[in-house]
Amino acid sequence: MRSPHKEKILVLAPHTDDGELGCGGSMHKFINQGDDVYYAVFSLAEESVPDGWPKDILRKEVSHATQTIGIPPDNLLIFKYPVRKFSQFRQEILEDMVRLNQNLKPDVVYMPSQFDLHQDHTVIANEGLRAFRNCTIIGYELPWNNIQFEHNLFVILSKKEIDKKMEALRCYQSQTGKIYFKEEFIKGLATSRGVQVSSEFAEAFKVIRWIIR
Q: What kind and span of H or E run contains 8?
C-alpha cells in the first residue's frame, strides 16, 4: 500500500544505468506523483568504457538519463569506486551509505536484489541492508544477473512511463551494444510483468523490508 504522503525515495545504483534499467519507469511515475527521488551511483565504470569513448562519458550519460526521468541535477549523487572491485571497499561504501541515510533520511530505498549475482551489486545489496535498516527496502530486477527472482511487488506503468524509461536508456549511447539494452527486451519484460497484474506494462520488485509509519 502506497503512503498517502509525499515520500523521499533513494535509488542505489552500483553502476550508471542500473537504476534506470531496474526501476526507470517507476522513478518517473513516482516523480510525477510528487515524490522526491534521489539517485546514488557508486561507480562510473571508467575501466569498462568501450574503446573510442571518452573515459568520463558515463558521467555525462547518467546526468542526461536521470534528468530525462525527472530527477533534479542536485539529486544525482556520484561516487567513484572502481568497477568489479567493490568488495575491496566494502567498509568505505557502507560509511557512504550511512551518511546518505543520515543526510537524506529516505523513506524508501530501491537497490539491487539479494538474488543479484554481480559482485558489485552483491556488495551494494548487503551493505544497503546494514545502512538503511530503518527504511523500507525494495530490490529491483535485473534478469541477466538473476538465477531466480521472487516478485512480490509490482508497479503498474503507463505507455508514457515505459516510453520515458526507454528515452532515458537511449542517453547511454556508449552502452547500446549490450543485449539487455535492446528496446524489444526491455519492453518485452515490462509487458510480461504487466500481464502478471493484468496491465499493459509493469516493473517487478522484491520487498526486502516494509515499514509502515
A: strand 8-13
Q: Which structural domain, as residue segments, surrounds residue 186?
A: 9-209
Q: For 127-168, how does the pLDDT look when each residue is reduced to its tens digit (9 = 90+)?
A: 999 999 999 999 999 999 988 889 999 999 999 999 999 999
DSSP string across 172-185? -GGGTTSGGG-HHH
> In what order do the strands lie in the sheet containing 201-209?
76-78, 36-41, 8-13, 108-112, 136-140, 201-209, 153-157
For the stretch 97-118, pLDDT in tens is: 999 999 999 999 999 999 999 9
DSSP summary character for residue 109 = E
Q: Does residue 76 belong to any structural domain of this protein?
A: yes
Residue 52: inside a domain: yes
Residue 163 within a domain: yes
Q: State the CATH number of the domain containing residue 24.
A: 3.40.50.10320
Domain count for the chain: 1
Q: C-alpha distances in angstroms, 198 versus 14, 110, 156, 175?
A: 31, 24, 9, 32
Q: Which of 157, 160, 155 is nearest to 200 (CA)?
A: 157
pTM of the model: 0.96
For residue 128, tell me if it sits in a domain: yes
